[in-house]
Amino acid sequence: MARITASVYTSHIPAVGAAIDLGKTHEPYWQPAFAGYEFGKQWIRNNPPDVILLVYNDHATAFSMDMIPTFAIGTAAEYASADEGWGPRPVPKVRGHPELASHIAQSVIQDDFDLTVVNKMDLDHGLTVPLSLMFGVLDPVKDRWPCAVIPLAVNVVLYPVPSGRRCFNLGRALRKAVASYDEPLKVQVWGTGGMSHQLQGARAGLINREWDNRFLDRLIAEPAKLAEVPHIEYVREAGSEGIELVMWLIARGAMSDIDEGGAPPKVLHRFYHVPASNTAVGHLILENR
Ligand code: DHB
Ligand code: FE
């Protein structure tokens, strides 16, 4: 059977993608942010998954304000990098896993989560920046990402957004879905976006280190309680875009301790850095025991 081996959490800042694409990662401003990913790059090279179930948000790229699903799963064989206004990021095409994605859709929808099934879409920085952070610079034509990726898009850009509780429970349903897939695949679940940031209005530039670090503590040690935090607290404490953090609860809900009991997952790596663009960089790697 397929199994979830680990979860990875990371910010997806577009300026980080630009720094990678323009060869600026060693500049003094960026170096400390990228240093936080050296462990993860080495770890994933030694522990390559077959598939990443990558929870992210689209930023009005594939889904315009005309139509925006709360949760959407990509079932395509291949996805192109989206043009967000400066041309598509120069990264390889993302290879999907239509069979596992369709199985997950079947299982999770029957488990009462309404996923929109997406057979064709382009992927923006929300998905490709986390891939670049963990896999480094690849040639867009000659190289391939080392594994298949199933995009799972969450609406955190247009209200109403899903609650932390619903996200956490979706993670639990995803775990069941993966565990019932009849092929011995190693699957990682990634929760991306965040941490505290506000890009608009009077509080633009808001960063809340204390709240972010408490979020990391609670995500590791008491995720079910953290899932009860209402969206208004994210907005007040972490800024209007800090709500992206609910996506981290999906990945955490998919870890084995939640429904099978036992100790919380092993914390392989934890990193927090301010500033990067308008936000804090947060990154965590948790491994199932
Ligand atoms: C920034 C961060 C984001 O998560 C995003 O989607 C857009 C911009 C920023 O820090 O500038
Ligand atoms: Fe974002």
Which range best describes the helical content: under 10%, 10-25%, 25-40%, 40-55%, 55-70% or over 70%? 25-40%
Question: Can you write the helix and strand succession as a string?
Answer: EHHHEEEEHEHEHEHHHHHEE
The total beta strand count reads 10
Q: List low-confidence stretches.
A: none
**What is the subunit arrangement here?**
single chain
Number of helices: 11
Proportion of beta-strand residues: 15-25%
Shape: globular
If you average the pLDDT, what whole number results?
Answer: 97
Strand count, sense and barrel status of the largest sheet are: 8 strands, mixed
Report the end-to-end length measured between terminal Cα atoms. Answer: 17 Å
Read across the widest sheet, the strand sequence of neighbours is 6-3-7-2-8-1-10-9
Structural class: alpha/beta
- Nearest-angstrom radius of gyration? 17 Å
- Small molecules bound in the structure, each named once: 3,4-dihydroxybenzoic acid, fe (iii) ion
Quick structural gist:
This protein has eleven helices and ten strands. It has helices spanning 14-21, 31-35, 38-46, 98-110, 125-135, 164-179, 209-221, 223-226, 231-238, 246-253, 256-260, and strands at 3-10, 51-56, 71-74, 78-79, 94-95, 116-118, 148-154, 186-192, 266-276, 279-287. The strands form two sheets. It has an eight-stranded mixed sheet, with helices on both faces. The chain has a two-stranded antiparallel ribbon with strand order 4-5.
Could you characterize the architecture of this molecule?
The chain has 289 residues and is of the alpha/beta class. Helix content is 35%, strand content 20%. It is built from 11 helices and 10 strands. Strands 6-3-7-2-8-1-10-9 form an 8-stranded mixed β-sheet, sandwiched between helices. Strand 9 and strand 10 form a beta hairpin. It is globular, with a radius of gyration of 17 Å. The protein binds 3,4-dihydroxybenzoic acid and fe (iii) ion. Fe (iii) ion binds next to loops.
